[in-house]
Every structure is written in C-alpha cells, then in structure tokens.
Amino acid sequence: MRVFLVASAVILLCGAVIVTLMLTSTLRHQTVSDAQRSLSQYVDGVLRDELVHGDRLTVAPRVSAELDRKIRRQSDLVTVKVWRSDGVLIWTNRAKDRIGKRFELDDELGEAIHENRSVGSIGQPGTGEDDVERGLGFTRVLEVYAPVSSSDGRRAIGAYEIYADPRPMESFLTGRKHVVWLVVGLVFLALYATLALLVRTASTTLRRQTLALKKRSRELMESYRRLELSSVEAIETLNATVDAKDPYTAGHSQRVQEIALAVARELQLDAGQLDAFGSPRPCTTSASCASQTRSS
C-alpha cells in the first residue's frame, strides 16, 4: 500500500505541475491578447481619423500636439509609431526627428503589414530605431504591431507599432499565477487524500476478509479431521463386528492392512499414499481395541 501511495503521489504531482504550467501559459497568452486588442483599439480610435485619408497615411503638423495629448491619456503607453507599408515612419510621439525616415521592417512589423493581422509579445526593445525606447530605461516592453487597414479592409496600408509598460500586466499575471498554483495544489491534494482514504479502506477490508477466510479454512479443516476420525471409527467398529461374528477370520482385515502398509513402505510411497492403505491408528472404541488385541 505504501508503494502504491508513493507512486500515486509522484504521478499526481507531475500531473499538477503539467496542468499548472498549461493554465499559466494559457493565462499569459490570453492576457497578452487582451492587452494587444485593447491597445490596438485605443490607438486606432485616437489616430485613424487624423492619419488615414482614403488609402493613404498622412499627418498634418498642426495635429501632432493634439495626438500627443490623447496618447498620454493612456498611462501605460510608452511609444506609438505609425508606419507606411514601405517602411517610412510617418508619426511617433517620441523623438520626432525620426519621422519621415525609412527603416528596415523587422519580422513582427513586416508580419503585421504583409499578413494584415495583429502581433503582440513581451520582450526587450531592439536596436536601431528602437534606441529611444531603450534609453527610457525599459528592459522589457509589451510590443504590439497592429495593421492599419485600407478603407475596404482587404489589405494593410501601414501599421501601428505600440510599446507599453508591461509591469501592471505582469503584476496581474503574477497574482493570477499564484492563485492558479494554489488552487491546483489544493485540488490535487484533495484528490490524493481521497485516494489514500479509499486505498486504506480497501486494504482494511481485504485484511479483514483474509482473516475471516483463514478462520473459516481452519474450521473446515477441523471439521474434515473430525469427519475423517468418525469414518475410521465406523470402519473399525464394522471390522470388529465382522470379526466377532466369525472367529475363524478374526483379525484378517487388520493383518491385510498391516501387510499392505509394509509393502507400501518398502516401495517408498509418500504419506498421502500410505494413508490410502489405512495408517495404524490408536483404538478409539472397545471393539476396535479387542480386534487389535486378537490380531496381535
């Protein structure tokens, strides 16, 4: 039982770790997706009317200050950049001297434009045009790349590159991870306790049934011994009766038995086979004793 309980504990522990890792991974992915969707919708709502004209991305200098003010309303936003599909940065709220310059589209930015879908992740700011963000002291940022769709929605004419402070989200994730670990641990601990109780109950029941079977087996063996003894006594009584009726053949049965036993011993038969010939037994009745006395 102890081996079974130890093996069960190891299996349940491994299962708890796997389930917890899967849940925390799913929670992290879902949280990043929600943050990505929320930031994309906010930035698009703020910038689209001022930047998107038909199927072109342009920005008037007079609206830049207003856009900066609207962006600052979202406290966790660090940097917002608006890219054309050819890699030209047409607007940003930081280091505006970068506006109008062409940069190499990196993997995620190019993916958002070419595949017309949002991409999000938490990582370190890159190099090149991201040197400004690195200089702000952020070792990790939430990066969101959202396409700026054309008027018909079929293609991307540019993309928003959004950098946000990940600390509030990571703090939320840490708290939820602790809750997940605690809940999963309690659930699997309850399962193990229930399993241990069931195993202990089953073991006690089996032990009790085994003892009962052993007792019943002893009782049956004792009943068999008494039955065998009664049978022998009946046969000896019958032999004594036959011997008393015919004195000429008195002791004949006893002598035949003794000869058969002697032959069986010479043949080195086992005890079970000797018993078939009728092993010598102490006399149990007056008739059997009288028979043995006459035969001797």
Give the overall form.
rod-shaped
Give the tally of structural domains.
2
SSE series = HEEHEEHEHEEHHHH
CATH superfamily of the largest domain: PAS domain
Largest beta sheet: strand ordering: 4-3-7-6-5
Q: How many helix segments? A: 8
Q: What would CATH call the architecture of the largest domain?
A: 2-Layer Sandwich
- Rg, nearest Å: 48 Å
Beta content: 5-15%
Mean pLDDT: 80
- Bin the helical content: 55-70%
CATH topology of the largest domain: Beta-Lactamase
Give me the count of strands.
7
CATH C-level class of the largest domain is Alpha Beta
Distance between the termini: 62 Å
Structural class assignment: alpha+beta
The residue ranges in which pLDDT falls below 50 over 5 or more consecutive positions are 281-296
- Assembly category: single chain
Main sheet overview? 5 strands, antiparallel
What can you tell me about this protein's structure?
The chain is an alpha+beta fold. The protein has 2 domains: 2-165, PAS domain (Beta-Lactamase), CATH 3.30.450; 188-295, no CATH class. Helix content is 62%, strand content 13%. It is built from 8 helices and 7 strands, in the order αββαββαβαββαααα. The strands form 2 sheets. The protein has a 5-stranded antiparallel sheet with strand order 4-3-7-6-5, sandwiched between helices. Strands 1-2 form a two-stranded antiparallel sheet. The longest helix is centred in the C-terminal third of the chain and has 79 residues, at 167-245. The model is unreliable at 281-296 (pLDDT under 50).
